[in-house]
Design brief:
This protein is an all-beta fold and about 220 residues long. It contains no helices and 20 strands. A hairpin with an 8-residue loop joins strand 17 and strand 18. The protein is rod-shaped.
Length: about 220
């Protein structure tokens, strides 16, 4: 039997010995079953995923009924292939779909990869706020994901890479500073904000215009600028 050229199924095979020498025709029968070799492919269409997306659903093409597995760190449902993104550790994993050996066919596997990116988190602050414009510069404190950019409105002289503010070059006022982490690895853009206030140092001069005074003049009035 040419198995590859045959259609999968169960057949009865008959062996026939023709009648001869006064003997009648003789037959013998047996059955043969041919099982189609399972084929399958799997994929995660949204790859890469962000850890805040909930779950990732697998797309299976081919033979169903197999089981899904991967390495430690990936929270995957063995029966459906669904991945719990929030419960998984960020990283790239190989997912294997296994169809057990059956019907004379060996075990069949299909693999794909899935990448989970941890959602960036960040907070920023200027510990010395408010600042006086004669203090030189103000340094930002960043907690969380590095690599973002800093920005604000016109009037604040801020370094977009470090968040450092040149106080003397800035216009006095209160500003909102935004730290932006660009969208990447399936995760959306993430921002963190804080405020910074810059005050102009007071200036003053005083004088007594009638100086010198005589003791009989009563009082002397100061001029304050």
């Amino acid at each position: 039997v040419d198995l590859g050229a045959s259609t999968a199924g169960t057949y009865t095979v008959t062996y026939t010995i023709a009648a001869a020498g006064g003997c009648p025709e003789v037959t013998a029968t047996t059955s043969i079953t041919i099982t189609a070799l399972p084929v399958a492919s799997i994929s995660y269409a949204g790859d890469p995923y962000c850890s805040d997306e909930g779950s990732a659903t697998v797309t299976l093409t081919g033979t169903g009924g197999g089981t899904y597995s991967s390495t430690v760190g990936l929270a995957i449902d063995a029966g459906t292939g669904e991945v719990d993104l929030g419960a998984s550790t960020a990283g790239t994993y190989t997912v294997t779909y296994t169809i057990a050996a059956a019907g004379g066919c060996p075990e069949v596997t299909a693999t794909t990869s899935i990448t989970i990116t941890a959602l960036p988190v960040a907070s920023i602050s200027y510990a010395g706020d408010p600042y006086c414009s004669d203090e030189g510069s103000a340094t930002v404190t960043l907690t969380g994901t590095v690599g973002g950019t800093y920005s604000s409105t016109a009037g604040l002289a801020i370094d977009s890479g470090t968040g450092e503010v040149d106080l003397g070059a800035s216009t006095a006022g209160t500003y909102t500073v935004t730290y932006t982490i660009a969208a990447a690895g399936g995760c959306p853009e993430v921002t963190a904000t804080t405020s910074i206030t810059i005050t102009t140092p007071p200036t003053a001069s005083i004088s007594y215009a009638g100086d010198p005074y005589c003791s009989d003049e009563g009082s002397a009035t100061v001029t304050l600028t």
